[in-house]
């Protein structure tokens, strides 16, 4: 992930910042539930040959990667959909290979996110939604990553897109990057209001070089976190510790779902942050995970 990347992260202020009033008020409005929060954790791809013999069994074939990935992780930031809309056979293959409780989180195609109208006046939204709905109960929250030049003066275009996207069938979250959204003024609050009115979530990105995108604004009962580490530096673990405390607090207030995506510079090291994340969640709460990322022990896949 090149966005927000810095050569030296040792002098970056990684403090979390202040939770917006919008988030606090939204959590207070959420209905009380005795059910535990659904927490999904994963990486940005399953095609890492370096995981064979470590997280996948020895001699695992490429076509078997997803099968084993979905038994070590509970979600995937599905970036492949950003470049092309999967055909029905691909969707069916993914569905059949993935573990029964696994969730795919598809990224909206660039043919939509990078078009002038966000696909509102073409057929790309329909084509994308018709494709990924084939994942059925394994379809999690999709996300739209707006390009770096998508500024607040295009909010009407975003609203048009939201009015066309079938959020009642396909959960959606929005990631913003353009700096003007975060400057002093009404824009960020207007965005939160807009997303709340459409029952669309936010993507919160924690990355060294752009601390403003760590906005902590929630608009639904789901938090989607893209955590970008720095090669397992000490600060990576300290930041995850802060996320654990924040998320557990939100869960007590009614947060129903969490997606936590681990990024590392080459993504080979991404599982280590998933391991630490779920270990700390279990240590500090009554949450327990049936699928846990863990290196292979004595040549066997260890899941417990």
Automatic annotation (TrEMBL):
Transmembrane segments: none
Stored InterPro entries: DUF72 (IPR002763), UPF0759_sf (IPR036520)
Native source species: uncultured Aureispira sp
Name recorded for this polypeptide: DUF72 domain-containing protein
Pfam families documented for this protein: DUF72
Top-rank taxon: Bacteria
